[in-house]
Design a protein that fits this description.
396 residues; mainly alpha; 0% strand; membrane
């Protein structure tokens, strides 16, 4: 057996395969292209899978219903139009789960008025809702929702590739792709919610900030609160960072004030029930109807909500260990003297405190709520590291 193995190895060496492999492994251009193709293929696969098999979930139903509100005149009509649109695309098993999968879903399926009352927590994503309304007459409302997840996904991929290429770090795409998947890239895309649209706007802003194009970045950050108002947390984290690191404060300060005012107006005119009612619904106890739901503040319920968030995040989600792993990688790069520019380190700081602030402000445990922060940190980490496979360790 040993002789056979030796013969096979000798034969392979004799054919020049090892020499060819060695040349390929030292060809930076080839390895850069392989990494870029792998990264792009990951995004194309996720996009194709989402297009073919989107995840019809409750949030998707609620967003579709919210987008249809301006075309209906009663809760009953809205209910009928929403479920007609969902039923045309959802598989039978998905539809059954949406309507009868748990007591809450069944109640919403059987009570149009209560179903409509839930939408006060979805109307505040007005940028996303308006996009569905613009695309809906052309593509159909459900297809519009799917496209609003797939196209931003591809946008995020292109921003990352452009950034890696400009920083001569394309081989880092081999590491960045799985990091983004762990950060919830796949599930948040197939879930068909505003999260991918928020991701492309926010990643664009982070990229522009890294390039010191602050005005353009601030315009994108302002737009981001119309996709998800809770992105004010990222803007606030960047404001604190600008103060701490001596950036030009005026652009980000104006952006924060304008974004905060926009969030207040969005909540008022969208009929949002308020932070505590929303907190109680999402973190303490789900409500079949949000009509006139204004619970008194309870310290016990407040603590219970945070305890639930911590427990579920640690047991069922990936963002806490990924957050710690990225911070550990940043520390190791610091020790090795490879921490990148001052702007990149400042952005790492902003995204780190933003991650903590996001959970502290509203302890939802799901990975998708932290994707913007972790994706930005992962991107910056790879840009600082600039891993190379075509040269020996220590010579990069």
């Amino acid at each position: 057996m040993a002789q056979s193995q030796g013969t096979a190895i000798d034969w392979a060496m004799g054919t020049g395969a090892a020499e060819a492999l060695g040349r390929a492994a030292s060809n930076r251009t080839l390895l850069d292209r392989i990494a870029a193709v792998f990264f792009l293929a990951t995004f194309l696969f996720v996009g194709a899978y989402t297009w073919v098999r989107p995840d019809y979930n409750w949030d998707m139903v609620a967003y579709v219903a919210t987008a249809l509100e301006n075309r209906t005149e009663s809760p009953e009509q809205l209910h009928a139009e929403t479920w007609k649109a969902i039923g045309e695309g959802a598989r039978e098993s998905q539809l059954y789960n949406l309507q009868y999968g748990n007591p809450y879903n069944r109640h919403q399926w059987e009570n149009p008025a209560d179903f409509e009352s839930q939408l006060s927590m979805y109307r505040v994503k007005i940028g996303y809702i308006e996009l569905l309304r613009v695309l809906g007459p052309v593509t159909g409302i459900v297809t519009a929702a799917i496209l609003s997840s797939v196209l931003p996904l591809l946008g995020v991929g292109l921003i990352c590739l452009l950034w890696l290429r400009q920083e001569n770090a394309l081989q880092g795409a081999i590491f960045l792709a799985p990091l983004l998947v762990v950060a919830d890239l796949f599930h948040m895309t197939t879930a068909v919610t505003p999260d991918m649209l928020l991701a492309v706007v926010s990643m664009g802003a982070i990229y522009l900030l890294a390039r010191k194009q602050d005005i353009a970045a601030c315009l994108l950050l302002f737009l981001s609160v119309f996709v998800r108002p809770d992105n004010i947390i990222l803007i606030f984290a960047l404001l604190l960072t600008a103060i701490a690191f001596g950036w030009r404060i005026l652009p980000i300060a104006v952006t924060f004030v304008a974004s905060f005012a926009a969030c207040m107006l969005i909540a008022k005119f969208g009929g949002h029930p308020g932070w505590w009612a929303h907190f109680y619904f999402s973190c303490v106890e789900i409500q079949n109807s949000m009509a006139n739901f204004h619970p008194d503040f309870s310290l016990a319920a407040f603590v219970r909500g945070y305890a639930r968030g911590v427990t579920v995040a640690l047991i069922d989600n990936d963002w806490p260990p990924l957050f710690l792993a990225i911070l550990a990688g940043w520390a190791l790069l610091w020790r090795a003297g490879r921490t990148g520019t001052g702007r990149e380190n400042a952005l790492m700081f902003a995204l780190a405190i933003g991650t903590l602030g996001k959970f502290a402000s509203f302890p939802l445990p799901d990975d998708r709520f932290y994707f913007v922060f972790l994706a930005g940190m992962a991107m910056l980490l790879v840009v600082m590291w600039k891993p190379r496979f075509d040269i020996a360790p220590g010579k990069a």
